[in-house]
Design goal:
Elements lengths: L1 H4 L8 E3 L6 E3 L2 H19 L10 H13 L3 H13 L2 H12 L10 H22 L4 H4 L2 H18 L2 H13 L3 H14 L10 H9 L5 H6 L3 H11 L6 H13 L6 H10 L3 H11 L5 H10 L8 H8 L3 H13 L9 H8 L4 H11 L7 H16 L5 H11 L5 E2 L2 E2 L14 H9 L10 E7 L4 E9 L4 E4 L5 E4 L4 E10 L11 H11 L8
Antiparallel strand pairs: 1-2, 3-4, 5-6, 5-9, 6-7, 7-8
């Protein structure tokens, strides 16, 4: 049965899954193959009927053949998962065959499942995995180039042991050409985000230099004085590539380059690009400088809606800057109505009595309503939605104004919160509760944490990435702050969502219907 089920599928009828928006098989073939592969996994895991958890050779060969020719993407995803569970000598050929399928490079699951398989086998069979990269043709496979090379390099660079860093040097030396070397270099740079590059083995330093790894960002992380001047020149140049300006603006803050503060402050208050302003504000938060906080508080009224959250994030990160913000509010320089609800709540609950008391004086006590008030609000919105039709085309700009800073829907929006596209958006009750009471159910990985740093900062966000060398905190303004473990004093979950309440406030009944028509639509809106 296993050999029959693992034969190529031929032409399989397809439909689109409403939940995942990807092709699935509606023929029995896909279900049969998945069942058969599941039996292989079960047998290997339990060693029942197999020698030491090894699949029979005919079955292993059939799995490789299926990986080479299978037409159903769900079956190919199952094969990638099987490649992890099989012994390396049987699983790696399956993974390699799947990685040769360039058309799967854009699949949301298969490339990551293939990486999952390779990473698993690295632990006990490192040389077997690395042997795949001895073939120059392997580097040209699209999934390998796009998805595997940066992750492989980052994995070894993040470990940081000499033996791992020597593997980084080996990969750079094996790369067939400059374009191929650029991919592992990007993973290497990602691994050292927020870290100073020191103590590298001579072999890796030589390999980096030969690979063009004397890039400005790596030289900056190595602490070269000339690199700092070069990076500052790029950051302040409005004609430079925007991506380069963002990269160096963030790096100057991560590396605490103190002489960059004047340039960063000028960017934060005067640059034409909102993205550059936000990056500069995030970097300025790394420096304990009262003059910076005062300047940002004075500039608050001129910041756009895109930039203002980053400014509030900086001003609420330290006790001294919180007081500067509150005094600015008290003097009338900044309108109380411009302060987001989550910032008000953060000031009201601040651990410092001086901040807490002044915030309560300015904003009053918390006005969160009881459960009956939530039920009343849900009922009122439901009534408005049921009173007439909505226009999803009119709802799209409302989504962009109210939600897109954090959430993505149909490839539009930010990356602070989860992508809404695969969510069950057709269930009105669930959707309303998530919007009106975002703390009722928080998706795993998006619960807010509060980080206290040893230099006196208090930062709130969710953990976007973490390894032994760095923690990346994603804040409500969409910016990421990278912290070394030695910088962190404490990290505590808040039990709350980063999503603020009151997102529907101020919308008319028709606007509510339009917004929800867009939120519940099954496809992107195009005019």
């Amino acid at each position: 049965m296993l050999l029959i089920a693992c034969q190529p599928a031929g032409r399989v009828a397809r439909t689109m899954s409403p939940r995942t928006h990807r092709p699935v098989s509606d023929a029995p073939h896909g279900r049969l193959v998945r069942c058969a592969i599941g039996l292989v996994i079960l047998a290997v895991a339990s060693s029942t009927g197999l020698a030491a958890g090894v699949a029979p050779q005919k079955t292993a060969s059939a799995l490789v053949q299926a990986a080479e020719s299978e037409t159903d993407p769900e079956v190919r995803a199952q094969l990638a998962a099987t490649a992890r569970r099989l012994p390396a000598r049987q699983g790696l050929p399956v993974a390699a065959a799947l990685l040769a399928r360039d058309g799967d490079s854009t699949d949301p699951y298969i490339p990551l499942l293939c990486w999952w398989a390779l990473e698993h086998h690295l632990a006990a069979n490192r040389e077997d995995v690395l042997a795949l990269f001895a073939d120059p043709a392997f580097w040209d496979r699209l999934m390998v180039f796009e998805h595997i090379l940066p992750r492989l390099m980052r994995r070894f660079a993040a470990e940081g042991r000499r033996q791992d860093l020597l593997v980084c040097a080996r990969l750079l030396q094996q790369a067939p050409g400059p374009t191929h070397r650029a991919r592992p270099l990007s993973g290497f740079e990602e691994a050292f985000r927020g870290r100073v590059l020191t103590g590298l083995p001579d072999e890796l330093v030589t390999a980096l230099a030969k690979a063009g790894g004397g890039s400005l960002i790596l030289r900056l992380r190595q602490g070269e004085a000339g690199a700092i001047a070069e990076a500052l020149a790029v950051v302040v140049n409005p004609k430079a590539r925007p991506d380069d300006r963002l990269l160096y603006a963030r790096a100057l803050g991560e590396l605490r380059v103190s002489n960059s503060v004047p340039a960063l402050l000028n960017l934060a208050t005067n640059d034409a690009s909102p993205a550059i302003r936000r990056a500069a504000l995030a970097s300025l938060g790394a420096f304990e400088d009262g003059a910076v906080a005062t300047s940002i508080a004075e500039a608050l009224p001129q910041f756009s809606d895109e930039v203002r959250p980053a400014a509030f994030g900086l001003l609420t990160s330290r006790t001294a800057s919180c007081l500067i913000l509150l005094q600015s509010l008290k003097s009338g320089n900044v309108s109380l109505s411009n302060v987001p609800a989550e910032i008000v709540e953060r000031l009201r609950t601040h651990p410092a009595p001086s901040v807490r008391d002044l915030a309560t004086t300015l904003f009053g006590d918390s006005n969160a309503g009881p459960p009956t008030e939530l039920a009343r609000r849900i009922g009122a919105v439901e009534s408005a939605l049921q009173s007439g039709p909505g226009n999803p085309y009119a709802g799209e700009p409302l989504f962009m104004q109210r939600c897109a800073a954090c959430h993505k829907l149909f490839f539009k929006g930010g990356h602070v919160g989860p992508d809404l596209t695969p969510y069950q958006r057709d269930t009105l009750g669930t959707l309303l509760l998530s919007i009106l009471n975002p703390n009722a159910e928080i998706r795993e990985g998006y619960a807010a944490v509060e980080v206290e740093t040893k230099d006196g900062r208090s930062l709130t966000g969710f953990v976007a990435d973490r390894d032994a060398n760095a923690l990346v905190l994603r804040t409500l303004d969409g910016e990421s702050t990278t912290l070394r473990p030695s910088e962190i004093d404490s990290l505590q979950p808040t039990g709350r969502s980063l999503m603020p309440e009151g997102l529907l406030d101020g919308l008319s009944d028709q606007q509510l219907r339009d917004l929800f028509a867009y939120l519940r639509s099954s496809q992107p809106m195009t005019k």
